[in-house]
Automatic annotation (TrEMBL):
It comes from Haloarcula argentinensis. Keywords: Membrane, Transmembrane, Transmembrane helix. This is Holin. The chain crosses the membrane at residues 39-59. It comes from the Archaea.
């Protein structure tokens, strides 16, 4: 695949993932629906991690320090992955939109 200009993506955005999302959009996929599903998934997973951590703290005799640290580290790791995935989706959305605009201007 050739680009009209090289991508300037942040270091945390996987270039291959942007290519995959661009291919999904070109083959008729709906990136807006994918974005909505990713946000919903993120909310549910975050609520689940928080719920499990709180239930471990209040319903069992778990050590509060270890449980809290593990909950925060898990949230941080998961949300770091989600940010990279969401940034790749946003970059692909912008790239597909700019290519569509360029194609309209050429016609």
């Amino acid at each position: 695949m050739s680009h009209s200009k090289p991508r300037t993506l942040p270091w945390y955005v996987p270039d291959g993932l942007v290519d995959d999302y661009c291919e999904i959009a070109r083959s008729g996929g709906d990136l807006r629906m994918l974005k909505t599903l990713k946000i919903l998934r993120s909310i549910l997973v975050n609520a689940g991690i928080i719920g499990i951590t709180l239930s471990a703290l209040f319903l069992t005799n778990a050590d509060a320090t270890i449980t809290t640290v593990l909950g925060i580290v898990t949230l941080g790791l998961y949300n770091g992955i989600e940010v990279a995935d969401y940034a790749a989706l946003a970059a692909a959305f912008a790239e597909v939109r700019s290519q569509q605009t360029t194609n309209r201007d050429d016609n």
